[in-house]
Amino acid sequence: MDTPILQADHLTKRFHNVTAVDGISLQIAEGEILGLLGPNGAGKTTIIHMLLGLTLPTSGTIRIFGMDLMKNRSRIVQDVNFSSTYTSMPNSLTVRECLLVFARLYRVKNRKERVREVMDMFEIADMARKPVRNLSTGQQTRLNLAKALINEPRLLFLDEPTASLDPDIADKTRKLLKSVKESRRMSILYTSHNMKEMEEVPDRLIFLHKGRILAEGKPDEVVKRFHGKDLEDVFLRVAREGQT
């Protein structure tokens, strides 16, 4: 790949005597969606935390936008964002207030206009004055996704972004993300336990097992690598049999 937006080499993370990530190397090109796939405990969340600079690797290097993450994190994070079903937003604020706070943190120009845009994207404009604490789980997920796009990031990390959404909103969200990726050449690191989603959304997959890369390639290539019927068949085989 030419000039990757993100390049991580030989990433390892140990917690005491447990190796959660074992020598992983990966790249994401401009405008590419890379899927991280694997059973619970495969190392997906630990990798994302290291790529965000929230957890320091035991060894290995991370470069984002051509810069060393450890030395330039404050510059890099202005063009990066993150969303996870498992993170919460400030409960005492309204939806609109919450997004305005993040727009200010990311130094977004024309903040009010941008907040209106992302609320419309995820169909939460009618909740603008609703306190975050009163939102349903699915509504909070949409708010988190709106926050993730508030600064029009060059690199976006999405951890189980549609896990709490109903099928209609989940489908709209997937189509929106793919559209934004194409129109703005956004790079995305994407995780999900929805195998149909992982066949549809990522351009390329990295299949993890016990902190190591088991397979890498386009979704159909990964399926062929394991002689599976589909990605769900492959996933179940790895999770249950520990195939390597």
For the residues shown, what is the average pLDDT?
A: 92
- In terms of structural class, how would the helical and strand content be classed? alpha/beta
In total, the number of domains comes to 1
Number of helices: 9
Low-confidence stretches: none
Q: State the helical fraction.
A: 25-40%
CATH topology: Rossmann fold
Name the CATH homologous superfamily.
P-loop containing nucleotide triphosphate hydrolases
Order of helices and strands: EEEHEEHEHHHEHEHEEHH
What is the strand content? Answer: 25-35%
Overview of this protein structure:
The chain has 244 residues and is an alpha/beta fold. It has one domain (6-88, 154-241): Rossmann fold, CATH 3.40.50.300. Helices cover 38% and strands 25% of the residues. The chain contains nine helices and ten strands. The strands form two sheets. A six-stranded mixed sheet has the order 6-7-8-3-9-10, with helices on both faces. It has a four-stranded antiparallel sheet with strand order 2-1-4-5. Strand 9 (204-209) and strand 10 form a beta hairpin. The model has no long low-confidence stretch (mean pLDDT 92).
Question: What layout of secondary structure does this protein have?
Answer:
Blueprint: E1 6-15, E2 18-28, E3 33-37, H1 44-51, E4 59-64, E5 67-68, H2 69-76, E6 80-84, H3 95-105, H4 111-121, H5 137-149, E7 155-159, H6 167-184, E8 187-191, H7 195-200, E9 204-209, E10 212-217, H8 219-225, H9 231-241
Parallel strand pairs: 3-8, 3-9, 6-7, 7-8
Antiparallel strand pairs: 1-2, 1-4, 4-5, 9-10
Helix pairs in contact: 3-4, 4-5
